[in-house]
Design goal:
Distance between the termini: 75 Å
Oligomer: single chain
Radius of gyration: 20 Å
Order of helices and strands: HEEHEEEEHEEEEHEH
Shape: globular
Strand content: 15-25%
Structural class: alpha+beta
Number of strands: 11
Largest sheet: 7 strands, antiparallel
Length: about 170
């Protein structure tokens, strides 16, 4: 009788552990028939959410960077490094607040509100949940990682040097 109850208890713990692990699988999913990666299905609310997701998809992430500010973004900024590249992450208290700042960014990412910005690299803007993310560079691995985590960029430059709006209009033609 004691062996049966011990086995049942151990089985219950194993099932509970498996269910907990499955419940936490909300990130990257690979299609077994191809190498297609599907974007994160949850909402990114903190830079820690983004860091955890990027690490779970085998990216090297350093989140010990400084707090940062931009005069035209109301969110709380944090610099992280993804695969050796600096990425700016701005956290907002509501999705409405991040959407308001995102709406002020021009399609090419070079104007925010009434401010024309000279960036140190090609701007790429992403937004999901409470996060507004800016990557200034052209590293394909970093761009793919951010797109996988946050969805397609909504403003900035494409790989071919055209802006998001130029790419959209050429697709429509």
């Amino acid at each position: 009788m004691e062996k049966t109850s011990l086995a049942a208890t151990l089985s219950s713990f194993a099932v509970l552990g498996l269910l907990t692990a499955c419940d936490n699988l909300t990130g990257d999913v690979m299609d077994s028939d191809s190498s297609t990666s599907f974007a994160y299905s949850g909402s990114m609310d903190t830079h820690q959410d983004l860091v955890a997701y990027l690490r779970s998809t085998n990216n090297q992430v350093d989140d010990t960077g400084p707090e940062i500010t931009q005069p035209f973004f109301a969110g709380e900024g944090k610099q992280i490094r993804v695969n050796g590249e600096d990425v700016q992450v701005y956290m907002y208290t509501t999705e409405e607040a991040v959407e308001q700042d995102a709406a002020n960014i021009s399609a090419d990412g070079r104007t925010v509100g009434t401010t024309q910005v000279t960036w140190i690299g090609e701007p790429h803007f992403f937004q999901d949940g409470h996060l507004l993310v800016l990557y200034l560079g052209n590293d394909a691995e970093v761009l793919l990682a951010l797109e996988d985590a946050l969805g397609p960029q909504f403003a900035g430059m494409e790989d071919d040097g055209s802006s998001i709006s130029e790419s959209a209009s050429s697709v429509e033609e």
